Amino acid sequence: MKLVDTRKIRQFQAMRDPMSLQASIKESNRCLLCHDAPCSQACPAGTDPAKFIRQIKFLNYKGAARTIRNNNILGTVCSFICPVEKLCEKACSIKALEDPIDIRGLQCFAAEYGNRFKLEPQEKSLKTKAKIAVIGCGPAGMSCAAELAKMDYDVTIFEREAKSGGVGRWNIPDFRLPGSAIDQDFQNLQNLGVEIKFNSAIDAGDSISVLLAEGFEAIFIGCGLSSPFTLKMFEGFTNTYDYNSFLRMVKVNRESLQLQDKSVVVIGGGSVAIDSAVSAKACGAAKVYLVFLESLEELPADQEEIELARTMGILFRPASQVSAVISDGNRITGLTGCEIEWLEPGKFVPSNATQVPGTEFSLKADVVIQAIGTSPGKEVSQLSKGMKTSGKGVIRVGETFETSIPGLFAGGDVVNGGATVVQAVGEGKKAAVAIDHYLTGRKAI
């Protein structure tokens, strides 16, 4: 993991200093200028790192900023949180000889350079084409809306919250993703002429029919996941949170959590579990335990996130399962559990775990945070009669991201069940192209 400043984490400031101009020149000069660059091929959002690195290398910093902004409406956001070690940096050709190019650092430098030196705004949509509704102003919705606006569609985003950004705004801690990065990308979206209606939830029964009746000729659903899973054993206790509520509280009123010198137990091993654990530690918790079913080698979180948790002193309890609550009235005071083994290797679900006798443990717990997954809100299944869902309620789509209802498209977490911001951006872009093909093909008939 590249060096982070733990003092900044405790102050909820961006944990890394931006790459300097001199460092960016030096780093870009390591690039091999590959033909058919594998780093660009490995980017789900099509940000084209090979091109912006080449532009930095030849001192065209504004050109690099334009490339990022034009290819990825959340280019600033992704420069902070994209799992590059699994994507572009993993594919970097120079990796065979030495460390991969610091693509995230260069993207962050270029995006910030463009914001600081005021790139000219992108051309506004002429709005000469059909009206399109986008549900959700998160990564998938913003990406889809931006691409459609560039094609001169008249796009309106309906967002239930008072601000844009979705999961990045409310669930990713400020030390990993500062709010200013979201604001910068949102400004670029507004410059394209997209209309955004905040505090406008689309959750009434058969809302899609209502939007179609209002003249929208195609609709994209990018509302993400909003219903965290919880365990029955924690029902009725006052000192437990689901990760969604906890991370949102960290964003808007972390002082009210009163975690100073407390013992916190986080259940789960994914990215949101680690974000919750590190946030609790940054809020002053004395001890933070991370209890998860997987072994350390099986953890679903990114390696950088795992290293961050270790740097912050998070205590790991791998291959372990909480089985009972110790309480005093309606407050949890501790948890008991046992180590587990998988009945069937590679099947990471609670029903596949068997407890190992003689490995029982107990933990003091002043606060418990559940971070064990999320599903779409109940309103998703009510949006349109006949829209097919599957699994935990995610929307079923075809290769073009069209649902079972003609003219109704979907992408991002509400389709893939929860992935990365950069994947949601890529799906939004692909859906925009499909919507354009759908509308132009319909008119040609």
Descriptive overview:
By secondary structure, the protein is an alpha/beta fold. It folds into three domains: 111 residues, Fumarate Reductase Iron-sulfur Protein, Chain B, domain 2 (Orthogonal Bundle), CATH 1.10.1060; 164 residues, FAD/NAD(P)-binding domain (3-Layer(bba) Sandwich); 147 residues, 3-Layer(bba) Sandwich (FAD/NAD(P)-binding domain). The protein contains 18 helices and 18 strands. Strands 3-2-1-4-18 form a five-stranded parallel sheet, sandwiched between helices. Strands 6-14-7-8-9 form a five-stranded parallel sheet. The protein is globular, with a radius of gyration of 23 Å. The mean pLDDT is 95.
From the structure above, extract its key features:
single chain; alpha/beta; FAD/NAD(P)-binding domain; five-stranded parallel beta sheet; 18 helices; 37% helix; globular
